[in-house]
Amino acid sequence: MVELLKGIETRRSFRAFISTPVPKEIIGRILKVASRSPSYKNTQPWEVVVVSGKKKEELGRILCELAKSDVTPNPDFPLPETWPTELERRAKEHGAKRFKILGIKREDKQKRKELSLSNFEFYGAPCVLFLFMDSTLSSWSILDMGLFIQSIILAARSFGLGSCPQASLAHYPDAVRKFFGIPKTKQLVLGISIGYPDLEARINAYRSERISLDDFVQWYI
Length: 221
Ligand SMILES: Cc1cc2nc3c(=O)[nH]c(=O)nc-3n(C[C@H](O)[C@H](O)[C@H](O)COP(=O)(O)O)c2cc1C
Hints:
Layout: H1 2-10, H2 24-34, E1 47-52, H3 53-68, H4 85-101, H5 109-117, E2 127-134, H6 139-158, E3 162-166, H7 173-180, E4 186-195
Antiparallel strand pairs: 1-2, 2-4, 3-4
Helix pairs in contact: 2-6
The chain binds flavin mononucleotide (FMN).
């Protein structure tokens, strides 16, 4: 129980990895455990593509080119255009803190772009998971996907692995589908980069903030 709490509490997104490969057997164990996640009527909507090595590099180059040439992202799940004020403040603070820890100035557009592009290099992770679900499913199934994703991330932690869930890896779903020969009837939900975290990397020293309980809970007990 203590371990479970500790795992949840210390989970974080890693954005730099060492090149040590992740054995296929470990990814298999992580996915098997994560498949115990709850889902609406036990429908288990998740479909996963695991990629590493040359194939991963190739896909990374394709996605990087698209992002570099400023092709407008066309995700299967539209990106939010606006946020409620307080949520927008948190998002901006998150961005600013990451730039600060890397010594990137606000006005340095080039460096900011480079940081954003490193998403498409999977932050150097040796293994990437692409998560799909059938396009006929409703937003309820997205909840199932979210639970599955958190289980993957936590299970990965217990093998000493770090990860980063990345909406950016779902920015160009047609390219990803074409690359893996996946039909348009499968929607790309998210990508997760997985590997052994580079604990020396400055970006991994960043720890995100949380609002306090009083800011999001009402008690009637
Ligand atoms: C749905 C979703 C999409 C995300 N997309 C990205 C992304 O594209 N790139 C990235 O670096 N981090 C991404 N993240 C990680 C968040 O930035 C991170 O979870 C948040 O800042 C809190 O930090 P923590 O995970 O270290 O606690 C995403 C997280 C979620 C849940």
